[in-house]
Amino acid sequence: MGRKWNNIKEKKASKDANTSRIYARFGREIYVVAKQGEPDPESNRALKVVLERAKTYNVPKAIIDRALEKARGNSDEVYDELRYEGFGPNGSMIIVDALTNNVNRTAAEVRAAFTKNGGNLGVSGSVSYMFDSTAVIGFTGKSAEEALEILMENDVDARDIIEEEDSVIIYADPEQFGAVQEAFKSAGVTEFTVAELTMLPQNYIELPAESVPQFEKLIDVLEDLEDVQQVYHNVDSEE
After folding, report:
1. According to the model, what pLDDT value does residue 75 have?
2. What pLDDT is attached to residue 16?
3. What is the biggest distance separating any 2 CA atoms in the chain, rounded to whole angstroms?
4. What is the DSSP annotation of 4-51?
5. Of the residues 23, 29, 90, 236, which has the fewest C-beta atoms closer than 10 A?
6. How far is CA 56 from the centre of its chain?
7. pTM for this model (two decimals)
8. Which domains, ranges and CATH numbers included, belong to the chain?
């Protein structure tokens, strides 16, 4: 199941020299989640999860505070949460999550990205049934065996525990995100290298070499769209 999460995160962060895109996306997500509930992570579980994720990307406190203040204020800015499902080259499967204040603009941009890069949009549910919503928590300083003991001691379930290079990666149900983190914090883990809520494919595919450039172009175009928050796919692209 392992996807070399630390490497994936580094690749995403390095696409922009100043990581401004990642910061902007977290700012938008923090605002939306805080606006939906309370702008206090202690009473808003979803907000707490977003803030924990933001920590692993080193999102500046100023950006987080600005988003929270905006949610506490009188801003009437409204974002819609959208999910698009489609197919890339050679039947590859792609999920695109977006937050937008202009649904028509986002739909047109996502559709154009697919059609101009060898893909096509599918209907709702055409792809997502082949993916599992998953919490991914990673850290250093423990072995997989020690991690399992900590989870058992705290009565927390996990789907899988693996070691990737010098990290331990925990895969769990999304509802267990907070419980997994708290279990390891109580065991002395002070920093998490990965803290994600993601969509993992049930099976990965390998593309023929001639299709890889077109697929990578499609993913890059989708990730570059201003309204897109996350892009998931089932192509094995580990290096």
Report:
1. 84
2. 53
3. 52
4. -HHHHHHHHHHTSTT-HHHHHHHHHHHHHHHHHS-S-TTT-HHHHHHH
5. 236
6. 12
7. 0.90
8. 14-72 (1.10.10), 80-129+203-233 (3.30.70.980), 131-201 (3.30.70.980)
